[in-house]
Amino acid sequence: MIWGYNRKDFQTQIKGRLFIRIYILLNICALIYICAQERERILKELMGSEQRVAAETHVLTLPLPFQGHINPMLQFSKRLASKGLKVTLLSFTDKEWTKAAEHGSVNVQIIFDDTLFAEITDQEDTVYINNLYATVKRRLPEVVAKHGESGYPISCLVYDSLMPWAIDIATELGLLGATLFTQSLAVSNLYYEVHQGKLKVPVEKTAVAVEGMPPLEIHDLPTFLFDLENYPLSLKLSASQFSNIGEADWVFFNTFNSLEDEVLNLMARQCAIKPVGPTIPSMYTDKRVKDDKDYGLSLFKPDVESCMKWLDSREPCSVVYVSFGSLSILGERQMEEIACGLKMSCHYFLWVVRETEKEKFPSRFLDETSEKGLVVTWCPQLEVLAHKSVGCFMTHCGWNSTLEALSMGVPMVAMPQWADQTTNAKFVADVWRVGVRVKVDEEGIVTGTEIELRIREVMEEETAIEIRKNSEKWEKQAKEAVDEDGSSDKNIQEFVAKLICNSTSSS
C-alpha cells in the first residue's frame, strides 16, 4: 500500500474502465455497421426504384426521314437509352435500309403511309413536308395510344427541328416536347437572323457582319441565303425552325459547348440551348454505350473488307480519303478535275464514287493510278476516318461528316457543295483551323491544280503541323464532351433526370 492506496484495487479499476470503454467502442462500431448496411439497403431500394421509373419513362424520337437526320437522332436515342430510358424511334419511310438495321437498345417503329409520297411535283419540298405533316398528324395519336395500352405510355416527343409543327401535335397529346437541331449552331444562328428579319435575303453584299460570328463573305453563307432562285422553299423551311421554338420544353443541338461557345452564348439569350453532341457512335468517342459501333443505317452497302485491307497496307497518315456524302452530285468536268488533282498530288487516295456517279468517272484513270488509289462505291466512313493510315479527309463538309472528322482528329480539305456546307467549311478553315478550303474558278469549278495544292498544304507543308495539332485538340474536346460528366453528357443526364422526376410526380 502506498499512502493509503491499494495497488491491486487501482489495477482492477483501470481494467474495469478499459473494459467499459472497449465495450462502448464495440457497440458504436456495431451501430455504425448496422447504419451503413441499412443505408446501403435504402440506397439500393431507391436506385432500384429510380431504375424502374427510368425504364418505364418512355421517349418517342421523330427524325426527318433522311439519313443525315435519322443518324444523329438515332445516336441521341441510344444515349438516352444508355441512361435507362425506354426509347422508340419512329420512322415514316419505307426504305429497306431502315427495316434491316440493327439499333441495339432503341426500338425502331416504321410506318409507311401511301399519302406520304403522293402527288410529288416540281415543288418537292413543300409537297413532301405537307404530306409528312398530314401523315404525322394522323398517325402519331395512334402510335401514342398503342404504347399507352402496352403499359409503357409515352411521356416526351423528341422531334427534328425541321418539323416545328410536331410540338403542337405533342401538346395536343399531352406530351412534353424537345427539339433536336441536326445542323451547327452557327448555321442555325444565320437562319434565326433571317427569321427575325435582321438578315435580309437574298444577301447581295460581298461582306456580311453577324453578331457572334466571324467576318463572313457571301459564299460563306448557306446557299439558301443568296441563291433564292434555286432554293426558295429550302430557305423558308430552314427559317421556320424558329417559328415556335419557345413552345418546346427543351432545345437540343448536335454540337458541343467549346466548339461553338461564342454562338452558343449569343443564342442562349433567346432560349435555353443544350448541346448534346457530337452524336456519333460511342465506340469512336467515350466507349460507354454498349455495342454502339456504327449508326446502323446506310443507304448504300459499304465495301468494308476491301477498304480496310487496302488501308492496312498503307503507312500512317499517308492516305487522302475523298467522299462527298450521299446526296452531292458533281458534274463530269468536276470529276475529271478531282481525278487530276489526286493524281498530281502523288499521295495514296481512297475515293468514294457512288454507283450513280460512276458514269462521269474519267476513262483510264483507274489504270493510271492503280498503284496509288482505290475507288469504291461506298465505304464504312467511321472506320476509315479512325484508321491510322488516313492523313486527311477531302469532304463536302456536311455537318455529320464534319463532326466525325473533328471527333477523330482528321484534318480536312473542304470542298462544300450547297446548303450549310459552305458555312461549315468556313469554320473548318478559319475558326477551328483544322483544314483548308478549296477555291473555285470563274466557272464554279475547283481545278485539279487547286486540289493538288490544298492536299499538299494539309499533308506536307509547314501548315500541316498546326492543322494536325488543332485537329488533335478538337478530337480531345469532342470526346470529353460526351464522356462522363462532360458538358454534353451533363445536358443529357439532366434531361433524363427531369423526365424521371416528371414521371414519378405524375404516377
Any chance you could write out the topology, listing elements then pairs?
Elements: H1 7-56, E1 58-62, H2 67-82, E2 86-91, H3 96-99, E3 107-110, H4 124-149, E4 154-160, H5 166-172, E5 176-181, H6 185-195, E6 207-208, E7 216-217, H7 232-239, E8 250-253, H8 261-267, E9 273-275, H9 304-312, E10 319-323, H10 332-345, E11 348-352, H11 365-368, E12 373-376, H12 381-386, E13 390-395, H13 399-408, E14 412-414, H14 421-431, E15 435-437, H15 448-459, H16 463-482, H17 487-506
Helix pairs in contact: 1-17, 10-15, 13-16, 15-16
What features would you describe in this structure?
Belongs to the UDP-glycosyltransferase family. InterPro entries: UDP_glucos_trans, UDP_glycos_trans_CS. Its EC number is 2.4.1.-. Pfam families: UDPGT. It catalyses: an anthocyanidin + UDP-alpha-D-glucose + H(+) = an anthocyanidin 3-O-beta-D-glucoside + UDP. The protein is an alpha/beta fold and 507 residues long. It folds into 2 domains: 53-297 and 484-506, Glycogen Phosphorylase B (Rossmann fold, 3-Layer(aba) Sandwich), CATH 3.40.50; 304-481, Glycogen Phosphorylase B (Rossmann fold, 3-Layer(aba) Sandwich), CATH 3.40.50.2000. The chain contains 17 helices and 15 strands. The strands form 3 sheets. It has a 7-stranded parallel sheet. β8 (250-253), α8 and β9 (273-275) form a beta-alpha-beta unit. α1 (7-56) crosses α17 and α13 (399-408) packs across α16 (463-482). It is globular and about 100 Å long.
Question: In the CATH hierarchy, what is the architecture of the largest domain at level 2?
Answer: 3-Layer(aba) Sandwich
Strand percentage lies at 5-15%
Largest sheet: 7 strands, parallel
Percentage of helical residues?
40-55%
Q: What is the CATH top level name of the largest domain?
A: Alpha Beta
How many structurally independent domains? 2
Termini gap: 78 Å
Strand order of the largest sheet: 3-2-1-4-5-8-9
Indicate the overall shape: globular
Our Rg estimate from Cα atoms comes to 29 Å
Low-confidence stretches: 42-52, 120-124
Could you please say which CATH topology of the largest domain applies here? Rossmann fold
Transmembrane segments: 18-36
Enzyme class: transferase
Pfam family, one: UDPGT
EC number: 2.4.1.-
